[in-house]
Design brief:
The chain contains nine helices and nine strands. With 358 residues, the chain is an alpha+beta fold. About 6% of the residues have low confidence. It comes from Hemibagrus wyckioides.
Length: 358
């Protein structure tokens, strides 16, 4: 077996090394291309924010579902557009005008640029689905629409008609404001946000509903205590009521975003659950019938008690009469026995007299 010279071995190793390096570079380039093609993170591992994710300062509607997020999004668009057309009219999108007839090219270009910016602002859809940052939770961003009024009108109609218009949507909560999910930022934002409802001379009974998802820095008890203290400082007449509050302060924390809203009829509309709110009037009528039945049963029971008392009194009187009759009978028996003994005594005396005479 011939030995390979040292220089040849060094040259062969260099060739193998260069081949391996070229193959590894091609594999890495393929991975980068596949990540960019399918929406993976850019170089450096940072995901670009803006436009498609829930961020502080947005308004909209939080929607929860049980899996089937795509179908839930379709139902949400259909339901929100239906009631938005009733409240605000149909959605109108501006169409760009043709400026090819203008003679001045620079003026035409400037006009097109201004028209492009104006049309992009006008063509912003009133509902846009964004990534909420949590599973089974959707966020529909609203534009030039009051989400609190819209969601309340939906639940009011479902509650009064009893018609269920969705199969996948569970809860629908309005988001009237949002901020960063840090205690200092939350209190600073809530100090101005809660004033229309709780600042003197306005006052109401309230409760605080807190929910946190994918966030470990916000402690439930601490946040609730700090918000309750803030509401009390706005007006001492504001009272906590957990049974039937006039207003409910909703705090939904998702990752680093805090979603806030103040809504009425939270208990009446079954915590804004679309599946349960459609059963509201029927359940209330049944409960009212049960309540109306209860006084009737109480009256009948009272009548029965009174009847039992009268029966007991009558039976007591009958027992006394029986005892009196028994005593009278015993007296009659005793008198008859006494009469018999007297007759016997009279007969004995007559027999003695007859014997003496003989």
């Amino acid at each position: 077996m011939q030995s390979v010279p040292y220089g040849a071995r060094d040259q062969r190793g260099l060739v193998l090394y260069t081949r391996a390096r070229v193959m590894s570079d091609s594999v890495q380039d393929g991975r980068k291309r596949s990540r960019r093609k399918y929406g993976g993170p850019a170089a450096g591992g940072k995901r670009r924010r803006g436009g498609r994710e829930l961020e502080p300062g947005m308004q909209g509607v939080l929607i929860t579902c049980n899996m089937k997020e795509r179908r839930c999004t379709a139902e949400a668009y259909s339901l929100l557009n239906e009631y938005a057309d009733q409240l605000y009219g149909p959605e109108q999108l501006a169409e760009p005008k043709d400026s090819s007839s203008d003679d001045d090219v620079e003026a035409a270009l400037q006009k097109e640029v201004e028209q492009f910016h104006s049309t992009t602002e006008k063509q912003q859809r009133r509902f846009t689905a964004l990534d909420s940052g949590a599973n089974n939770v959707l966020f529909i961003r609203t534009h030039n629409i009051d989400p609190g009024r819209l969601v309340h009108s939906i639940l009011q109609d479902l509650y009064s008609t009893g018609r269920l218009k969705s199969r996948v949507i569970l809860r629908m909560l309005p988001v009237c404001g949002s901020c960063k999910a840090f205690p200092e930022d939350m209190l600073k934002f809530l100090h101005s946000f809660l004033q229309p409802w709780f600042l003197s001379p306005n006052h109401a009974s309230y409760q605080i509903c807190f929910k946190s998802r994918n966030n470990s820095s916000s402690k439930r008890d601490d946040i609730i205590k700090s918000i309750a203290g803030l509401v009390n400082r706005l007006n001492p007449k504001n009272k906590v009521d957990l049974t039937d509050p006039e207003l409910s302060i909703i705090i939904e924390v998702i990752k680093s975003v805090c979603c806030v809203s103040v809504i009425p009829d939270y208990k009446r509309f079954r915590k804004y659950n679309l599946q349960e709110v459609a059963k509201g009037p029927a359940n209330q009528e049944a409960s009212q019938q049960e309540v109306t039945k209860e006084p009737a049963t109480e009256e009948t029971s009272q009548q029965e008690v009174r009847g039992n008392e009268a029966y007991q009194e009558q039976s007591g009187q009958d027992v006394l009469k029986d005892l009196a009759n028994q005593e009278q009978g015993e007296q009659e028996v005793a008198e008859s026995k006494a009469n018999q003994t007297e007759d016997q005594n009279v007969g004995g005396d007559s027999m003695v007299n007859e014997a003496e005479q003989e």
